Request: fold
Amino acid sequence: CLPFTSRNFLDNTYNNNKDDLIHIKFKNILEKYNLKFNYNLNKQNKIFDFICVNRSASIKLTYDLLKYIINYLKITNKTCCFIIIEHDINNPYYLEIMDYYNKNKIDNLLFINGTHLNKIKNSLWTGLLREDLAILYKLSKIYMHCCEAEGESRTIHEALACGCMILAKNN
Reply:
């Protein structure tokens, strides 16, 4: 059942259909955004145990979530795709996040930030193409959402439509 509150889902970009070419599409994403990540597809065609899509804002708990994820990944063989949809070098919170990531890089974390992404027309934000984001959701088991306060999260709907389980705060 797709959420009826967002017209983004009407074109089936985020539907949970079986995609036999998903690994080729993932390789294309890595090349397109100049990313490096060693991976293996499991039996369910998943690469990531977790995916997170955030802005760098304290209300989103982005820094805390990144810290938790990195510490968890260091002691497990789990994988994560962590996406920050901006590149604001004037934002001290963003710089703190980037500093932590740069000091704690690990192989089982695909970290994507605004330096890799496309500028969105008529917007301050950068972003993945919707089709590419849908591939990353489809390759992930669990979407983690830790925002302190949120209305109706579009990313939760996108992740659900792509077959992810959701781990979120109850707010």
